[in-house]
Design goal:
With 150 residues, this protein is of the alpha/beta class. The chain is built from 6 helices and 7 strands, in the order βαβββαββαααβα. The strands form 2 sheets. It has a 5-stranded parallel beta sheet, with helices on both faces. A two-stranded antiparallel sheet has the order 3-4. Helix 1 crosses helix 6. The termini are close together.
């Protein structure tokens, strides 16, 4: 059993990965939805604290400014990454999330790859997975981490 955070840039495949894990019966929380993220791109800290206190076996996804405050409560922080061209293509064409459709948002994704992704890589990621891999392989890798616990 393990708590895992899947983080990464928009378009890396976090939501798709969580959908596959949920389909397999895993407890997942995609913080892009259902009010987890507050204005200012931060998690609702009391709500996240409660979730992590109640569940020792959950996969959470998201990328927000205050996620580092929770790293010590996760057994693994997985950085899902992909080349910027793939991120832009995925974000521009997805139908489940409007972010990344505009040129301004795509420019923001490019900036985040240069400025935010290195911070995630250095500041908390314990594992990095290639978001270009088939979703089944990514889900297998997450389940292997969950089985390994710490």
């Amino acid at each position: 059993m393990a708590r895992i955070l899947v983080t990464g840039m928009s378009g890396a495949g976090k939501s798709t990965l969580l959908e596959e894990l949920a389909r397999r019966g895993e407890l997942t929380v995609d913080t892009d939805y259902d009010g987890w993220e507050l204005p200012g791109a931060v998690w609702d800290e009391p709500r996240m604290s409660e979730l992590l206190a109640r569940h020792d076996d959950v996969v959470v996804s998201g990328t927000v400014e205050n996620q580092g405050r929770f790293y010590d409560r996760f057994d693994h922080v997985v950085l899902l990454s992909a080349p910027v061209g793939i991120l832009i293509e995925r974000a521009a064409n997805r139908t489940n999330n409007p972010y990344g459709h505009s040129a301004a948002q795509q420019l923001q994704i490019r900036r985040h790859v240069l400025e935010v992704e290195p911070l995630l890589r250095r500041g908390g990621a314990t594992v990095e997975l290639d978001g270009r891999l088939p979703v089944g392989e990514l889900a297998d890798a997450i389940e292997a981490l969950r089985g390994a616990g710490l």
